[in-house]
Amino acid sequence: MGSETPPEVLIPSVLNVIQKWPSFSFLLYLPETLSVPTLENVTVITCSQKIAMDDEPRKAIKQNPKSSLVQALKGISAGDGFISCCNTGAFVLASGLYVSKLPGVHRPALVAEMSLLQSPVYILDVGGTAQRAAQQLQEWAYLGKGYAEARGTRSPKIGLLNIGVEEMKGAEEHREVVEKLFSMSHFVGNIEPQDILSGKVDVVVTDGFSGNILLKSFEAISLYWLSQMPKGDVRTSIQSKMSDSMQQGALLVGYEAYLMKCHGSSSQDTFAGALTKLLSLMERSTIDKLKEHLLVGQA
Length: 299
Fold this sequence. Notes:
Layout: H1 7-18, E1 26-31, E2 42-47, H2 57-63, H3 68-74, E3 81-84, H4 88-98, E4 109-114, E5 121-124, H5 134-150, E6 158-161, H6 172-181, E7 187-191, H7 193-196, E8 203-205, H8 208-228, H9 233-246, E9 250-253, E10 258-261, H10 268-283, H11 286-298
């Protein structure tokens, strides 16, 4: 609730996904005016308040305890999943207030997955935290490495997004952290955006401001060039890959629960794709695997 796409538009595709996962139990947080068909594995919780996309996060959370975001995250337990296309700032802040972090994690990060290549590339942070600090970037490098390993990437290669590959490039925080990260196995150093699509790295580390712009720029450029291509099998194939990549949402990694953030303007297909991805991650116990890899990395 509170996203650009109203819940009544998304609900049909959500119910379609739910019926394909009968072993899971679902809680739907919906406005009082919206009713849905009765399903055995679905409980509906009504919400009398909502947080708008342009609301100031901290104030909105405090003033809207009956919103879907606050009610859901207050009731979440380790191993549970949550998905929303709400206000990103409120999503990140409420997660920090109500959800337990993984051991050793101080600042979780939004992780986006690009699946345009043969193997996925994980980018963090893509909008959870706009500020940057060397310690934070260093933590995200290990968090991204652990997440990639938990997802099945062996010996993932990690790169720090920068304005050049030379060690002296970038802001003070970049120059400080790149030196520290060279002690990390499979760290390749500074990278530029073109290195992401070349297969040079499996994990891209950046601050949330730069990561969000990077992600949206990739999407915008890809959609533009796709619109210029003649119709045919090649365009259909590329469009299918792009659609799969863009439908996955971004996982807020570093918590004991699976927290999926989607675009505020998500379509039925986009939200259904992200929900399916979330359920797949839960089914594979991805967080348990991530904790194992983080413990090894911290040893």
